[in-house]
Each structure stands twice: as C-alpha cells, then as structure tokens.
C-alpha cells in the first residue's frame, strides 16, 4: 500500500488551558474524499488550519506526502485551502481572480491562459470569465474560490465548510459537483463540515470529532450502522437509546437485560465496550405489519403520541407502558397508503435483536 498522503500523528493544539485539538492521529490516503465532522467548537477548523500551516501544533507532527511539515510555511506546502467566506477579490473579474495565484508566482503568457482555461472548465465557469463576483450567484462565487485553489494543482485541497453559505437546493447541487470534481481532478480532498448528511453522502471516510478528540474514523456505512460511541450514534442520524444492564460479554456479543426486551444477545460496538446503552435506528423498528413477523422479532405494545410528516417519510413517536419512548420512521411508499396511525391509537412495535447495538458512553 502507498504511504498516506496526509499523516496526522499525535497532534495537540492548545489555546491557553484548553486543547482545541487533543492527541489526534489520522492517516488520509491519496485520492480520498475525507471529511472532518463534528459539532461547533470541536476543533475541525483548527485541525485544518494546522494542515495548511496557519497554526502550529503544540505536540505531534504532520506529514504531507511523506515530508514533515513542521518547519514548512503555508505557501510552501503542497496544499491549498478554500475558506468558508470564499475570499474572492470583489474588484477583479472571475478570470483575474482565478489567475491571481499563478501570476504571483511569475507564471504568464500561454501557460497562464491554458491553466486558467483548464481551471474555469473544471468548475464550469468558462462563460463567466468577464464577470465580477457581485454579478454571480453564491454557488458560482464558491466555484470561483474552488478554481482559485485548484489552479495551483495542490496535492491536497482543504475545504472549510465550503457549502454552508448556500441554500438547501444549491447546496445539494454543489455537493454532487464537488464529488464529480474530486473524481475528475484526482486530488485528495479534506472537507470540514458539521452537517452529517453532507459528510455521509460525499466522503469516502469520515472522522467524527468531539471536544478536540477523534472518536471514530470509518466509511459512511460503518459510521451509521456500527458507531462505536453513543455520541457518534446520536450525532450521525437519529437513534433510540435504551439503558440496559450488561449481564456478560463474549467476543463480539453481549448478553443484556432490559425491562421491555427481556434478556437477549446483541452485538457489541467494540471489544472494550462492557457497559453502555443499546441503540436502534428509527427505520429499523417496524410499525407496519403487512408482512409477517420475522423470526426472533420482539413485539412491544405502545401508544402513538405524535407524528411528524415529511412527505417521503414520517416519524412516529410512541410510548411503551413502562414509559420508554421510541421513534420509528416509515416511508410513505404508495400514494394510496393509509398513512400514519392516529395520535392516541394503540400500536405494536417490532424490534429485531440483530438491529440493536451495544455502544459505549465514554
Ligand atoms: N485563535 C484562537 N484563540 C483561542 N481559542 C481558539 C482560537 N481558535 C479556536 N479557538 C477555540 O478552539 C476550539 C475549536 O475551535 P474551531 O474553530 O477549531 O472549532 P470548529 O470545530 O471549527 O467549530 P465551528 O463548527 O463552529 O466552525 C473552540 O473552543 C474555539 O473557541
Ligand atoms: Mg470551523
């Protein structure tokens, strides 16, 4: 296997007493679309700024393409950063904005023209070259910022919340664009986001951060279906969490007890998880019994308390006799569908032990 293009090795960054980034180690492979995901203030931007060279770690080191970056200033690093605020020059045309970085390096003439054309084509702005930024939409301005970064042919492109200023529709469009662009240019992308759907749908792998620490690094499906921490389970999507008593653990399994579920065997998220909560995703629970119960499914009686209708799917909030609240999502598959059960009605909830996971709370 090739060595990682980015190697973050035991990096800590303190501002005063608090560690904004705390003992973080991540290896990123060439050509990956890698996302740093976590809530506000968890240290995402600080980590990205250390990769770019705008901050210096207190501990640990950063290698890019095998070279130690400790003493390498930002302008000598093989990376480029796209800032959340775009940072395009308002008085310059699109073309001049894109050309700027190369001009500063003394590149001109045919070479400059060729690379500007190439960069504008990458972001599909060939027909906008004479416009000024205030004559562009938010999405087009973001593309100018991308072209400005890509024209320097960095080995790694760093993107700090690149789409957060765009409205929902445009953001979804630009998400597809960015993934396409990354495939085309074959540059490693490291993107910061606090939007879990954005990270899941765009990245090959994601590091989930909280309070400066990395809790889990995995591909989107593993993060969603096999989170190792309660925090990860709750941050990525929605989850039902049940407090359980762990009776015993055996390899990848745990024997647990819960008043509603009885004593059952469930999967453990990691070998060191010996107590914690059991989590279940809302779409894994069943409310509709048009199909017969699956072998091993546990059926619970409940009362429907509330329904949230989103068009394509509905969230149904129910409560069991012992007070346990659960949420179940169901797709509105047919237009002729009867729809959701009414609030106040009695229902049954089906849970299969295979869809439960014991996760650590630490
Ligand atoms: N220059 C600084 N001086 C002091 N504290 C800082 C500095 N920069 C960041 N911090 C602190 O470090 C922590 C991490 O900040 P950072 O900007 O990396 O978070 P973030 O994950 O990017 O958050 P957001 O999603 O809100 O952008 C925060 O508590 C922040 O207040
Ligand atoms: Mg930030």
Topology record:
Elements: E1 6-15, E2 18-28, E3 33-37, H1 44-52, E4 59-64, E5 67-68, E6 79-82, H2 94-104, H3 109-122, H4 138-150, E7 156-160, H5 168-185, E8 188-193, H6 196-202, E9 205-210, E10 213-218, H7 220-225, H8 230-235, E11 240-243, E12 245-250, E13 253-258, E14 262-268, E15 277-280, E16 298-309, E17 313-319, E18 325-331, E19 346-351, E20 357-359
Parallel strand pairs: 3-8, 3-9, 6-7, 7-8, 14-20
Antiparallel strand pairs: 1-2, 1-4, 4-5, 9-10, 11-15, 12-13, 13-14, 15-20, 16-17, 16-19, 17-18
This protein binds adenosine-5'-triphosphate and magnesium ion (MG).
Concise structural overview:
By secondary structure, the chain is an alpha+beta fold.
Ligand kinds: adenosine-5'-triphosphate, magnesium ion
Q: What is the name of the CATH superfamily of the largest domain?
A: P-loop containing nucleotide triphosphate hydrolases
User: If you average the pLDDT, what whole number results?
Assistant: 92
CATH architecture of the largest domain: 3-Layer(aba) Sandwich
Spell the H/E element sequence.
EEEHEEEHHHEHEHEEHHEEEEEEEEEE
Structural class: alpha+beta
Your description of this structure?
This protein has 362 residues and is α+β, with helices and mostly antiparallel strands. It folds into three domains: 6-225, P-loop containing nucleotide triphosphate hydrolases (Rossmann fold), CATH 3.40.50.300; 238-278, no CATH class; 282-358, OB fold (Dihydrolipoamide Acetyltransferase, E2P), CATH 2.40.50. 23% of the residues lie in helices and 34% in strands. It contains eight helices and 20 strands. It has helices at residues 44-52, 94-104, 109-122, 138-150, 168-185, 196-202, 220-225, 230-235; strands at residues 6-15, 18-28, 33-37, 59-64, 67-68, 79-82, 156-160, 188-193, 205-210, 213-218, 240-243, 245-250, 253-258, 262-268, 277-280, 298-309, 313-319, 325-331, 346-351, 357-359. The strands form four sheets. Strands 6-7-8-3-9-10 form a six-stranded mixed β-sheet, sandwiched between helices. Strand 16 (298-309) and strand 17 (313-319) form a beta hairpin. Helix 2 packs across helix 3 (109-122), helix 2 (94-104) packs parallel to helix 4 (138-150) and helix 3 (109-122) crosses helix 4. The chain is globular and about 75 Å long. The model has no long low-confidence stretch (mean pLDDT 92). The structure holds adenosine-5'-triphosphate (ATP) and magnesium ion (MG). Residues 15, 20, 38, 40-46, 194 line the site of adenosine-5'-triphosphate.
